Amino acid sequence: MTVSRTIAGGQNVRPEIQALVLEAVQALGYHRNDNARRMRVNKGSGLVGVAITNLANPYYASFALGVEEVAAQHGVRIIIGSTGENTERERQLVADFLGRQVEGLVLVPAGGDSEHLQVQALGGTPLVLASRALEGVDADTVLVDDTGGAHAGTSALLKAGHRRIAYLGNAASVSTGHRRYAGFCRALEDYGVPLDPALVKRGQQDVEAAQISMTALLDLEDPPTAVFCANNRNTIGALKAIGARVQERGGIATGPAIVSFDDFELAELMPVPITIIDHDARQLGRESATLLFARMAPGGAIAATREIEMPTRLIVVRS
């Protein structure tokens, strides 16, 4: 009891006794077991699990900071894992989180099978989906205006006079991929520009795959004059391919204009015209965590699920 009181702040413990306890703590390398302490006072684990698709993507680092900011306000810590856009890895990660008795989950879904995210499988642990919706999962969801943002970005290229506009995007099974492609197609239709299947590359989940697809587009007999990239990893892959092609040609050509859905690192230093469809990833994290803690509050489990859609804005980085 004396040790416990000392570590908790020293209330009702004489200073000389506190000094002896703290000396022993330092010598032993002792750390309080907060999990055991919270269980003793029926406070739960004090943890929230956050599953994202790519730890290397700065976008998700900002997102996680937003979740952490709200969690800290509630005296809760987050643990993070990456699914790599793989449903099986997602299943294992969620099981690991539940095994650690997390009090809630924030998930950027990989798409595909969702049996492990059903209420029964989660054992009542609250779940919030972020960035992507998931058919068949009744959970609070925070989305970005994917369709409207893609439409605005593509329209900007069309207004600038481009008609050969390529599309680089992630898998159609992912809700963002479906929604952003729909916005792209709607903009072409609004301007009376037919969709050319040869200019559409879908399914690139990483930079390397996007670079390969962009290289194939540049090799076309009539290559695109502009490219819509449905996320920042596709943008970086496209820029790598364009940079390699410019080097091959002695640095004379600049390559096609680019619209990127999501900001990316060093965008302002790129040698081609770039427009960003921007939104606040950190605020996306905050909104997701706010919904989660509302769901975790007493009576929150019986509230109707909510869907929030965050706005986007166009930023011309280099015209």
UniProtKB/TrEMBL annotation:
Keywords: DNA-binding, Transcription, Transcription regulation. InterPro entries: HTH_LacI (IPR000843), Lambda_DNA-bd_dom_sf (IPR010982), Peripla_BP/Lac1_sug-bd_dom (IPR001761), Peripla_BP_I (IPR028082). Residues 1-41 form the HTH lacI-type domain. The keyword Transcription applies. It comes from the Bacteria. This is LacI family transcriptional regulator.
